[in-house]
Design a protein that fits this description.
The protein starts with a helix and ends in an 11-residue tail after the last strand. It is built from 12 helices and 19 strands. Strands 15-16-17-19-18 form a 5-stranded mixed beta barrel. The chain is α/β, with parallel strands linked by helices. The structure holds S-adenosyl-L-homocysteine and iron/sulfur cluster (SF4). S-adenosyl-L-homocysteine binds near residues 163, 199, 235, 333 and 338.
Length: about 450
């Protein structure tokens, strides 16, 4: 979501004459887009600001131009005042919901001479106007695999999570506005769209007929777009895996057989304390239903270890659930208390060394499963979307339908094509293979 927002911030700034720069050195404006989800991410903001400040000082000392230093994203939203106190060289602080107002904010700051006393601007509103109505069309191509934000915010209030406070209430963009953006992305070369939302499967936007459309409906509409080959969506909540959406995985061939479905814990006691509003069995039932509809579907998830009150037995329940599902990939974290969330005041804190030990055990198991899943693809032929250059000369990087990273030796002219690859080797993190045919799947046509 932050990568998407950063692109859109660049789009908003373009009409003001700003171009993206590969390095902060010599820039007229620096925007640090931030994440508040765990403490570690927040800590990074201040060390990064310290580093960026050097570029600002250097550039300002060389001439008369003011260098605008901005902090964006969820840390800005949650800690705007603290940022300007701790880092007085920051000129602009704006949250995830106000970046469409950047032209105004920047114009308030321009005309200030370098070295003059900082006039600062903070905009962390949740404005009544939707930012998507004000964002310009995307100016740069995101390449063959593009992000598209369809839903933002969250009303679930899991007790550990800052998202409902930093991103605000659930909001879904209307279907037509998403289709327009999708068409423009496909025009610019996208073959795969990753639909984004903090709670993407809670999507309920206004449909073309004025009725409320759910995510399954939106996926069906998008799958009709000519030249669009692959659809993915993230991140989902088990509570919103409706029958319609599960069925869509059987009906929409563009929908890739891979789903990121966070559960956080395999212990019902923990799930209740986290206010996840479902139990482990419900999760397992969803996985079963999806496997019935789409037998090759692969799953990934998020886990939190060491939530307040978590016992060894709770952790074993998590390990058990992981064994039952068998994941293709996973993200696991130590619980990190976030200011303002209900869990931050809960008793029964788990010791740091216990959290570490549980995380190691869990990651070992998840890592083994990921390796096994990758190894099970060896010898198979998979369609791979070659989305960027590989690290090595003459190599391209791509994604399998199951979201695995695949490295192949390939001519650069195959970049952004979907090619059939015979998988040769597998490690825990990626696959290598050989291209079978250069014939791109993307040559197929669909009814308009
Ligand atoms: N909407 C998604 C998750 C969004 S946050 C969902 O409902 O699952 C992404 C992940 O960060 C979460 O799934 C969770 O595993 C992790 N996370 C969020 N808050 C956290 C915290 N306070 N401590 C540790 N991990 C956290
Ligand atoms: Fe956070 Fe996801 Fe829970 Fe919403 S559903 S509060 S985003 S973890």
């Amino acid at each position: 979501m932050n990568v998407y927002d950063s692109h859109r911030i660049a789009d908003v700034l373009k009409p003001l004459g700003f171009e993206l720069s590969d390095t902060p050195e010599g820039s007229d404006m620096m925007v640090l887009n931030t994440c508040h989800i765990r403490e570690k991410a927040t800590e990074k903001v201040f060390s990064e600001l310290g580093r960026l400040k050097e570029h600002k000082i250097k550039k300002e000392s060389e001439g008369d131009t003011k260098v605008i230093m901005a902090v964006a994203g969820c840390v800005a939203q949650a800690e705007g005042k603290i940022i300007t106190q701790r880092a007085p060289f920051v000129d602009l602080v704006f949250g995830p919901q106000t970046y469409h107002r950047l032209p105004e904010m920047v114009s308030k700051l321009t005309g200030i001479r370098s070295g003059s006393k900082n006039k600062r601007h903070i905009d962390t509103d949740f404005p009544a106007e939707g930012k998507f109505d004000y964002l310009p069309e995307e100016t740069q191509s995101q390449g063959s695999s593009a992000f598209l934000s369809v839903q933002e915010g969250c009303d679930k209030f899991c007790t550990f999570c800052v998202v409902p406070y930093t991103r605000g209430a659930e909001f879904s963009r209307p279907v037509q506005s998403i289709l327009d953006e999708a068409l423009s992305l496909v025009d610019k070369g996208a073959k795969e769209l990753n639909l984004l939302g903090q709670n993407v499967n809670a999507y309920h936007g206004a449909g073309k007929d004025g009725k409320i459309a759910d995510l399954a409906h939106l996926l069906h509409e998008l799958s009709e777009i000519n030249g669009l080959e692959r659809l993915r969506y993230t991140t989902s909540h088990p509570r919103d895996m409706t029958e319609n959406l599960i069925q869509a995985h059987g009906d929409i061939k563009e929908l890739m057989p891979y789903l990121h479905l966070p559960i956080q814990s395999g212990s019902n006691k923990m799930l209740e304390a986290m206010n996840r509003k479902h139990d482990a069995q419900m999760y397992l039932d969803i996985i079963n239903d999806l496997r019935k509809i789409r037998p090759d579907i692969a799953f990934s998830s998020d886990f939190i270890v060491g939530f307040p009150g978590e016992t060894e037995q709770d952790h074993l329940d998590t390990m058990e659930l992981v064994k039952q599902v068998s994941f293709a990939a996973c993200y696991s974290f130590k619980y990190s208390p976030r200011p303002g969330t209900p869990a931050a005041n809960m008793r029964g804190l788990v010791r740091e060394d216990v959290k570490t030990e549980r995380l190691i055990r869990l990651q070992q198991l998840l890592g083994d499963q990921q390796k096994q899943f990758n190894e099970s693809q060896v010898g198979k032929i998979l369609p791979v979307l070659l989305d960027r250059k590989g690290r090595e000369e003459g190599q391209l990087h791509g994604r399998s339908p199951y979201n695995q990273a695949v490295h192949v030796k390939a001519s650069p002219r195959l970049l952004n094509e979907i090619v059939n690859v015979r998988i040769k080797t597998a490690t825990q993190s990626s696959l290598t293979g050989e291209i079978l045919t250069s014939e791109s799947e993307s040559t197929k046509t669909k009814a308009a």
